[in-house]
């Protein structure tokens, strides 16, 4: 069957809708079969809403002594929200209930404290997968292709351990719809890579699926129902599809060419800084960081971002693939 995404499909910013506004650092978005939407909240929790309804912010209960910076989020089998803590020093995976109660879930890997943690997903067997982008302090020291100290880890009944190491700023991971592969974005290596998913669970050798360039720094990724990989890029503020034949297609961009040329030159000189990435120039996408498919027909795409206060959405001509979060319910 030919891949059904039209090769000329492309959107502009005017094609986007606001799904929810008044948010704080909605870096990651989940879309559930119930119609519920959940986004990370930069002040320690999450935001929950349905289309057309006012968002509800769930933050840590009063008196919690620890500073949390939720980055990637997931829904657990228990119906609580899991988040990867991207703190300045310590990371970990935590669970937050609807009343703001926070519990630690994974705080160590191979017996050592988890560094600031980027992403989390719980698989169908209940194993918790997570990524650490870098062991460098501060993290901006790893915003170069020269540093490859990120990793993918898993926590299950056998303990918490690293499954793949030596990655170039590990970001989101996603299971392929056939559950044969784990795909990963290596943000500052500008790569989309994959590993064969083996029993254990374990991972096979790394394969590079796609090498990007310029100011395309891949952050979020998910699959459509036909094997295409949809990637969000911070820096360039693009959504790029890697078609099943390996070719790439830009389906959305709101480009500030002067800014992206500047970022590309800074990256080439191994000189990217926090200040460089703290703006999007004239782009209105505000550092687009994640994408998830939802809606009754799985053809509504929702976009998370690092620097904005809204989740935007658009209509896709093809459906997305269900994720491990899709068929779970928030409690």
From TrEMBL:
Pfam families on file: SGL
Native species: Paraburkholderia caballeronis
Protein name: Sugar lactone lactonase YvrE
Domain SMP-30/Gluconolactonase/LRE-like region: 70-247
């Amino acid at each position: 069957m030919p891949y059904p995404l039209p090769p000329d499909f492309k959107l502009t910013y005017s094609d986007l809708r606001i799904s929810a506004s008044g948010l704080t650092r909605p870096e990651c978005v989940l879309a559930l079969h119930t119609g519920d939407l959940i986004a990370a909240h930069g002040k320690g929790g999450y935001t929950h809403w349905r289309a057309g309804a006012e968002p509800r912010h769930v933050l840590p209960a009063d008196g919690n002594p620890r500073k949390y910076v939720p980055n990637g989020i997931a829904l657990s089998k228990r119906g609580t929200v899991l988040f990867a803590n991207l703190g300045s020093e310590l990371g970990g995976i935590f669970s937050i209930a609807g009343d703001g109660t926070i519990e630690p879930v994974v705080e160590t890997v191979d017996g050592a404290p988890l560094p600031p943690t980027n992403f989390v997903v719980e698989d169908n067997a209940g194993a918790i997968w997570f990524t650490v982008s870098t062991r460098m302090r501060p993290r901006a020291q790893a915003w170069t292709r020269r540093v490859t100290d990120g990793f993918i880890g898993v926590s299950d009944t056998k303990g918490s351990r690293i499954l793949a190491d030596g990655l170039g700023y590990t970001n989101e991971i996603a299971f392929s719809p056939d559950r044969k592969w784990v795909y990963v974005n290596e943000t500052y290596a500008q790569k989309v890579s994959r590993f064969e998913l083996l029993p254990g669970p374990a991972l096979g050798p790394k394969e590079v699926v796609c090498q990007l360039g310029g100011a395309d720094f891949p952050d979020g990724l998910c699959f459509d129902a036909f094997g295409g990989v949809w990637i969000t890029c911070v820096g360039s503020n693009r959504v790029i599809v890697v078609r099943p034949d390996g070719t790439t297609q830009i389906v959305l961009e709101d480009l500030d060419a002067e800014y992206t040329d500047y970022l590309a030159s800074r990256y080439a000189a191994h000189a990217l800084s926090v200040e460089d990435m703290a703006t999007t120039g004239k782009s209105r996408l505000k550092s687009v960081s994640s994408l998830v498919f939802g809606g009754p027909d799985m053809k509504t795409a929702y976009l998370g971002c690092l620097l904005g206060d809204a989740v935007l959405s658009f209509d896709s001509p093809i459906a997305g693939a269900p994720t491990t979060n899709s068929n779970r319910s928030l409690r």
